[in-house]
Write a structure and sequence with these properties.
Layout lengths: L2 E5 L3 H12 L3 E6 L10 E3 H11 L11 E5 L5 E5 L2 E3 L2 H14 L3 E4 L6 H7 L3 E4 L5 H7 L8 E10 L3 E2 L3 E7 L4 E7 L4 E9 L9 H16 L2 E2 L6 E6 L10 E4 L2 E5 L15 H13 L9 H12 L6 H11 L5 H22 L10
Parallel strand pairs: 1-2, 1-8, 2-7, 4-11, 8-17
Antiparallel strand pairs: 3-6, 4-5, 9-13, 9-15, 10-14, 11-12, 12-13, 16-17
Helix pairs in contact: 1-3, 1-7, 7-8, 9-10
Amino acid sequence: MAEFTIIGGNVSGLSAALHLHEQGHDVHVYEEKIWNKPCGGAISVEFFQYLKKKWNVELEEAHKGRYMIIGLPTGKHVRIESPFVTTTRKELQEKLIEAAKKQGIKITITGKRLTHEEVFDIATPQTIVATGYSKLSHQLLGREWDPKDVAHILRFDGIVKEASYPDDHYIIIDNKITGYGWLFIGDDHHLNVGIGGEVASLPGSFSWLNYFYQFIEVLREKYDVHINEKLVPRGWKLPLPINKKKYHVSNTINGIEFIGVGDTVGMAHPILGAGIEPGWMSSKCLAAATNEKGWIDPSKYQRLLIKNLKVTSNRRLDVFLSRMMRSSLPYNNYFAYYALKMFTTHMIQKMRENHWYEIQYHD
């Protein structure tokens, strides 16, 4: 049995805690606060069911909707039966913390962000870093992200009573920001609406806030979604590399080996930006790379990540489409539409066949 410190108590950090504890190891999670993380909250129906069956985590606020609409700002779109449910990130974190505590996992809510120096006061020989895109992550893992691999997120999540809309979820791809906007519908007037795109491709004068409100207008004019309140979004950054191999997953400082999970090592889907299930999978890979004495083999961990990503979020088709959508070719939005029209059903089918929580353990 080994002892592990986990810095960060959201999805990836709590997944690491649950899986390492399941192996018999002693785990202590440190998290700043329980909060509604400003990013999307969509998970597959299968993952929703898995959380309930395996970990007794029941998300009461989850909402499926009728359809998922994947389209363009012009109004052209593909419509499929909704393959996911949405929930608030706050509820997901709360329920996972509750499940972890029931397992006997120690969780400390610090009330503040830990400094680089404070981390060393609580670190174990191998310490798990689950702090996403942050200065602390960069310090502990000894790296910076390539600007081309970073997405900027702006999102509102809350109650919007002055609104009318179909019971559908929306992803609207726009090459202008090399990304997309989304609208996820919840129960009782709950909306999760945001935009996200590549930072490096935009001019310095570009205003994310202005674009957020332009996206609200696109929803109104092209998709019959009328939001009549002034929404105030929050910002976030997300590592979104296509090539995961060029970033290391661990770094040693003063004899302490720091190992990243989730957004810290860029797990999100290169097209959809989905990060919850890839983050969960990264922690399962971490646990699978841990021997009976409690030593994590970082090389094996990275190999397992790459192997599993090839059948989940980094399939060849997904990488190809992502590269094309990020390219400087003209008429990218039209390419994106016809590519989605041809491949959306296939892509969703493969995602549902190869579940994020069912990893391949062997090299």
